[in-house]
Structures are given as structure tokens and as C-alpha cells.
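Reviewer 2 asked us to include a model.

Predict the structure of this chain.
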Amino acid sequence: MPKYKHLFFDLDHTLWDFDANAKETLGELYSIFDLDNKINTPFDDFYPKYLFHNEVLWDRYHKGFISSDELKWKRMWRTLLDFNIADEPLARDLSAKFLEILPTRKLLFPHTFEILDYLKGKEYALHLITNGFEKTQWSKLNNSGLNGYFTEVITSEASNSLKPKKEIFYFAMEKAKAALPESIMIGDNLDADIQGAMNAGMDNVFVNHINAVPEITPTYTVTHLKELELIF
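Predicted model (C-alpha cells):
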């Protein structure tokens, strides 16, 4: 087995439970903006629509088709349109409040602190590579208690690149002073994290929380974070 020294983690959907935190936040916004009455449908019908548009627009953002600003408000705009509400100011207000509240949430995937403590105890250097926004991601790290675990935090905003482009991985390794053979990427997204690492020639671990069937072959696959102990 290769002797890894630098472990590069993804944040959202890998350690920080984006969907659970987003659901809590949107549920709160549903009340703040009186959407129950404006849309005349329960939150449980609204939320799946949001998840769909969020996933589609993140994919377009990853591929460079839309800007970060478009991603932020259009996921709300498209969701509202599904309920026949063409209200751009409301969509932008929802987006702003969502991005204010979301990073304060603290829900993590099971075994997150346990595995990070384990890896730190084995003297691995831990880093993050995330396509999230600089201010937002640091807020998530600080509020969830994850901020003390990572030596380098590389965001797409600060690096001027996006996973799965190989440049963000090269930027991260240079910043961490890590050689390619001793580096490995750990993430949940087959395109951004796994294919991105492959593009850079980096080994990778697919964190398959949802039991997806991969069309590519990761270096390693785990179904929950504690299984990382079997690799490291």
C-alpha cells in the first residue's frame, strides 16, 4: 500500500452533512418568509424540488457554465417557479438568508470527529479541497468544530479553479507542500472528487454514503467514514 502523508478531504456531503443542514435551514426559512401560505403547499413538497434544482445547478457550476452568484439565487428561483411563483426579489432574499443561516448549522456525518481524531493521532496531515465559497466554508468549519483539524483549506474561490479540474488539486498540493505519490483525495462526488483526483493523477477514496453505483473505478471505496481506518 502506498505511504500516504497528506489526506485531502472534501467538506460538503463528505464530512459536513449538507442535505440535513440545508433541510433544517430551509424549514426555518419556510416559516420566516411565510412560504406555506404563499406557495400553499407543505414544506415536504418544497424541499425535494429544491434538492433537484440545487444538484442540477451545482453540476453546471462545477462545469463552468454558470457563476457562483447564479447558483446561489437561481436554485431558489427555479424551485419557486415549480410552484408558479415568478418572484426574483423573493428568490434573492431567500438565497441571502439561506447563506446567512446555513453555515451556522453543525450536523456532521457519523464518525466524523472519531475518524479525524484517529487520523491526526497517526500523524497524517489533513487538508480540505472544496468547491464551496470561502466565507461560507470557513463559517461551517468554525461553527461545526472542524476548523482545528485541517492544515490547509483550499476553496475554489481562493484557488480560481474548480474540482474536477486538475489545477485545483495541483494548487492544493503545492500549498500543502505535498508530493503527488504521498497525497490522496477523499470525497463523495464521483465527478468533482474522484474523477477530479484522477485528472490530477492522485489516488482517491470514494465515500459512498448513498450506495451509488460508480461508472468509474476509485482507488478505494468506503460506505461510511469509520471504514477509512481500514485504509489508513
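The mean pLDDT is 94. The chain is about 50% helix and 10% strand. We have added this to the supplementary material.
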